[in-house]
Design goal:
This protein is mostly beta strands. 8% of the residues lie in helices and 24% in strands. Strands 1-4-3-2 form a four-stranded antiparallel β-sheet, with no helix packed on it. One of its GO terms (molecular function) is chitin binding.
């Protein structure tokens, strides 16, 4: 999908999962603008624009394998299509779903600093919620509910060091979403309205900031053209 801006492409995130991939080279020469699945890894796809590889993504393997489908332009369940990945090669390992101890549904205590920070400021639970993905009080954090267990996710970092934002940030926390995808803040087409702004993590501290969220939005790729053809905003 070509945007009104001349030097970038607005890339619709796949419905299931995606994450940013930085180290898989792909030849976009001769290909039309859009998403193309990698020639080797079924779960990796690339954003081609004007014959150049602009960005690369991978399907998050949460609980089972996903592959990128060229027709639907989404990460699809491999289990639902035996021919979905002819090469049977995947770049990303499957992330195990937390086990359920007996009949009690619980979430393990966090050990990572950002998870400790998130849990200390927002008590999110999956009791009574359907399986799916849910908004948090931050634009770069989201939750997943699966069989009553809550898992939190922090979006990957951009080359600038700031983090991508969840594509459904600001959605009602009571409503499950189908998308587990992070993208450039400007590509969400809306500023951060979540009460905590964004989680800002360094090597030693974790904080939250609405002011930093505004800065990240205005400085993200969609509004910083190198050729000077894009105005600010």
């Amino acid at each position: 999908l070509q945007s009104k801006y001349s030097n970038f492409i607005l890339l619709p995130p796949p419905v299931q999962n995606q994450k940013v991939i930085l180290d898989v080279v792909f030849d976009c020469k001769g290909r039309i603008d859009g998403h193309w699945r990698d020639t080797r890894y079924c779960d990796v796809f690339h954003a081609c624009l004007a014959g150049e590889q602009k960005r690369s993504y991978g399907c998050n393997q949460i609980g089972e394998k996903f592959y990128f489908d060229d027709v639907s332009q989404k990460c699809e369940f491999t289990s639902r299509n035996a021919n979905g990945c002819p090469s049977n090669q995947y770049f990303t390992m499957i992330e195990p779903i937390p086990s359920v101890p007996g009949s009690q549904l619980s979430t393990e205590a966090p050990t990572e600093p950002w998870k400790i920070f998130v849990q200390s400021r927002e008590q999110f639970g999956c009791s009574g919620k359907q399986d799916g993905f849910y908004a948090s009080r931050w634009c770069n954090v989201f939750y997943r509910c699966f069989t009553g267990i809550a898992t939190s996710f922090l979006c990957p970092k951009m080359p600038s060091g700031s983090r991508l934002w969840w594509v459904q940030h600001g959605s009602p926390q009571s409503i499950a979403q189908e998308t587990a995808a992070c993208t450039w803040p400007c590509e969400t087409s809306r500023r951060c309205s979540s009460p905590g702004g964004i989680v800002v993590d360094s090597s030693s501290t974790v904080t939250e900031s609405q002011q930093e969220a505004e800065t990240v939005f205005t400085q993200s790729l969609c509004t910083s053209a190198s050729d000077g053809s894009i105005g600010g905003g």
